[in-house]
Design brief:
The chain is an alpha/beta fold. The chain is built from 15 helices and nine strands. Strands 1, 2, 3, 4, 5, 6, 7, 8 and 9 form a nine-stranded mixed beta sheet that branches. Mean pLDDT is 90; it is low at 343-355.
Length: 355
């Protein structure tokens, strides 16, 4: 059994993540290959210290620091004779029966990749609010590996336990995708006719971001890379992925209309219509949070709607920024290769176009 892990700036959680790999009750030998990016904390030092005490743990450099590159480097450094590869990362905590149950499920179903649920576990009030938001439909939609569901075939799963042969067939992780590389790989696995299997019993502990800035950056990046995936695979666009950008546009337009109305138009009817958009959005968030906050303490409850809104709008802004950037780039390339198509008929002197 080979386990691959990437780590970047994981001083806080790396030791626990590594311990969870070697605490597995899997009835066979386990090797761990850890790809470490250029961190500014003690991540590399901790990784080397841990590897020095375990003969079956190896550390490799990931110069770019990018997750898909690190995963591919780790796979390349594993023992090629081991038929199963388990993916984890430097802030995940595998339960002791994770590998054993995943392999049993793989053998039972014949799946090429088996995975389960991300189980966010927060310590502070803010982290507990983020954990709930990442497990609730109001935060992440109805994707099974976040919110749960029945066992069965799936579009994607969290992390993954792969047959080595499917990674060889697909070429591994696509290094163009800094984020969502797991979804992209699973999409290609399904394209080969193989099966990706979701098993809700497989619950991996995940440490959520500890402040607003980190959460916003995480979801901004998620939105950016979701746009890139949709650009490459247009048929994968769905309401779930377009809801946050649509809400962001709606709120942005509403605020702009309110500002223009207050400064120039002074229409009570227009202001009321524009104000309806943020009011409806705030109401939806309030209802969604109220129906899913059971068990949260006072501090986490107070942070809960804030984290949900941060996730939505950061994701939406990231998605829209990437889409606009690509649109502008495409227009510039078009103008550079065919300048006549970018000039107005009058400027170009094309009399036929002016008729």
């Amino acid at each position: 059994m080979s386990v691959i892990m990437t780590a970047l700036e994981e001083e806080r959680h790396l030791a626990d993540a590594v311990a969870s790999v070697f605490d597995q009750d899997y009835p066979g030998p386990i090797e761990l290959v850890l790809a470490v990016g250029p961190s500014h904390d003690r991540t590399r030092e901790i990784a080397d210290e841990l590897a020095a005490t375990r003969a079956s743990m190896h550390v490799v450099d990931n110069p770019s620091g990018r997750t898909p590159a690190g995963l591919n480097l780790a796979v390349a450094a594993t023992d090629p004779g081991r038929p199963v590869i388990v993916r984890t990362d430097g802030h995940a905590h595998l339960p002791p029966d994770y590998v054993r149950m995943a392999v049993d499920t793989m053998l039972r179903t014949g799946a090429a990749n088996v995975g389960g649920m991300m189980l966010p576990v927060g310590v502070s009030g803010f982290e507990r609010a983020v954990a709930r938001a990442m497990s609730a439909r109001i935060g992440m939609g109805s994707v099974p590996f976040h919110t749960g569901g029945d066992e069965g075939p799936a579009q994607t799963v969290y992390l993954g336990v792969f047959r080595r042969s499917i990674l060889a067939t697909t070429g591994g992780f696509d290094e163009r995708f800094t984020r969502a590389q797991d979804w992209e790989l699973n999409h290609r696995i399904l394209g080969t006719g193989a099966t990706v299997w979701f098993d809700p019993r497989l619950r991996v502990g995940y440490r959520p971001r500890s402040n607003i800035r980190g959460l916003a950056a995480q979801f901004y990046g998620g939105g950016t890379w979701r746009w890139q995936l949709i650009r490459v695979y247009p048929r994968t666009a769905s309401i779930r992925y377009l809801a946050a950008p649509a809400a962001t546009v709606g709120l942005g337009v509403a605020v702009l209309v309110l500002l223009v109305d207050a400064a120039v138009i002074h229409s009570a009817a227009l202001a009321a219509a524009a104000a309806l958009v943020p009011v409806c959005y705030a109401g939806a968030v309030a209802v969604g949070c109220a129906t899913s906050r059971s068990g949260l303490d006072v501090e986490a409850s107070a942070w809960y709607p804030v984290t949900v809104i941060t996730m939505h709008l950061s994701w939406g802004v990231g998605f829209l920024t990437a889409a606009i950037r690509d649109g502008v780039r495409a227009l510039r390339e078009r103008c550079g290769s065919a300048p006549r198509s970018c000039r107005s008929p009058v400027a170009s002197g094309d009399v036929r176009s002016q008729r």
